[in-house]
Design brief:
Blueprint lengths: L1 E6 L1 H8 L7 H25 L3 E5 L1 H6 L1 H9 L3 E4 L12 H19 L4 E2 L10 H7 L4 E2 L9 E2 L6 E2 L9 H4 L13 H17 L5 E4 L1 H4 L2 H15 L9 H14 L1
Parallel strand pairs: 1-2, 1-8, 2-3, 4-5, 5-7
Antiparallel strand pairs: 6-7
Helix pairs in contact: 1-2, 2-10, 8-10
């Protein structure tokens, strides 16, 4: 099982609309994620002895270096989540590469070597895999075409697959413009996650849980998350691993074969 945290903070709202930079009420959601929710998540992971992978926007690494330092001090992996939270498919190849390099330059001074990449909204371009391989990444986590990790042909990148059903955003996010999309209860989301997790584990697959501090970090949801992870942690047959550990295990199996 891979427990992953997408730390996109201010960059999420700035990518949606640069004018949000002048809207402190909107950006207060990002500050809540960084200042309140991340420390709570770190405490939960420490209590359960669960390693996590935090995918971080480079711009937010510059904005909140102390938050990243705390994540690293707790032994978690830092992955790349863009410099801004703009989708690569909207960019020309050179612009996408610039975003990739800027993100690495922001993350490396705090986290050291960066092995993994997750695109904003899991939305890659036709150039993304080539660019990741060229810049030394060992794995990516964006695709929904499998329940087991695999290697991308021609690039050598390991894919740590994902799915919206195991992401907090589709369940808890809402449409603030139309108010047509309502938030689900923590109980309902726990049921979805437990059903999917149980089925994947029964088939010997990989569960990649994706949460966002500003979303999962509300008190009631944190309580649900800890209870959910506690039940899974009691199962000795589940390996909790960082993204790079999963990628290394996949490569080791391929070499042995």
């Amino acid at each position: 099982m891979a427990v992953t945290v997408d730390f996109d903070a201010d960059e999420l709202w700035l990518a949606e609309d640069p004018a949000n930079a002048a809207r402190p009420g909107v950006l207060s959601q990002a500050r809540y994620g960084a200042r309140t929710a991340v420390p709570e998540l770190l405490q939960i992971f420490a209590r359960l002895d669960i390693p996590a992978t935090f995918f971080v926007c480079g711009g937010d690494a510059v904005r909140y270096p102390d938050v990243l330092e705390s994540v690293v001090a707790h032994g978690h992996e830092i992955g790349h989540h863009g410099y801004t939270h703009r989708s690569p498919h909207l960019m020309a190849r050179d612009e996408e590469e610039t975003e990739l390099v800027r993100g690495l330059e922001a993350l490396r001074p705090i986290a050291g070597e960066i092995h993994g990449y997750r695109s904003p909204s899991w939305d890659i371009s036709g150039n993304t895999l080539e660019l990741l391989a060229a810049h030394g990444f060992s794995y990516a986590s964006n695709m929904m075409d499998a329940v087991r990790p695999y290697t991308h042909p021609g690039h050598g990148l390991v894919e740590v697959p994902v799915h919206w059903s195991l992401d907090d955003a589709p369940h808890f996010w809402f449409d603030a413009t139309s108010w047509n999309k309502t938030m689900r209860s923590a109980r309902e989301v726990a049921e979805v996650w437990e059903e999917e997790t149980s089925a994947i584990h029964a088939g010997g697959g990989l569960v990649t849980l994706t949460v966002h501090p500003q979303i999962i970090g509300r008190p009631g949801r944190l309580r649900m998350l800890e209870a959910f992870l506690t039940r899974l942690r009691a199962d000795d047959g589940i390996w909790f691993a960082r993204g790079e550990e999963i990628a290394a295990a996949v490569r080791a199996v391929e070499v042995a074969a």
